[in-house]
Design a protein that fits this description.
The chain is α+β, with helices and mostly antiparallel strands and about 140 residues long. The protein is built from three helices and seven strands; from the N terminus they run βααββββββα. The protein has a single domain, classed as Thiol Ester Dehydrase, Chain A (Roll). It is about 20% helix and about 35% strand.
Length: about 140
């Protein structure tokens, strides 16, 4: 399993009239978690595109348990529970407040797409090699 933690301070513009983070902003928080989790492995979406791979989001789920508020420092925990074996990658997210209370959970599924053909492809070998040490067991590498 691969896990990464990043933090974000809630900006005023991300809250609604009730001083609560607007639910649509969690898609951006999940994106920050994903982007930073692959950055520490030496990858960015820009690099993936230079390699000829796009990663569109094809599914997103969120469950809102508690609100986040303006100026809260939130922690985004991003987890890959399984090493991708086919054309998709599934990120799980948990968002916590400074008191370590779980606020929101989510799952985002992305596909690996060949930029030239627009067809599904497997995870790039370089990314697979970077992630493989975090996974043990019977998964085919």
């Amino acid at each position: 399993m691969y896990e990464h933690i990043t933090t974000v301070r809630v900006r005023y513009a991300e809250t609604d009239q009730m001083d609560i983070v607007y639910y649509g902003n969690y898609a951006q928080y999940f994106e920050v978690g994903r982007a930073e989790s692959i950055r520490v492995l030496g990858f960015t979406y820009k690099r993936m595109e230079e390699m000829g791979v796009r990663m569109p989001v094809v599914q997103m789920e969120a469950r809102f348990l508690r609100p986040a508020h303006y100026d809260d420092l939130i922690t985004i925990k991003t987890t890959l529970r399984e090493l991708p074996l086919k054309h998709q990658i599934e990120f799980h997210h948990e968002v916590y407040n400074e008191r370590k209370k779980l606020l929101t959970t989510g799952k985002v599924v992305l596909f690996f797409i060949d930029i030239k053909t627009g067809k599904w492809i497997g995870m790039p070998d370089d990314l697979k090699q970077a992630l493989s040490p975090f996974f043990t067991g019977n998964q085919a590498l």
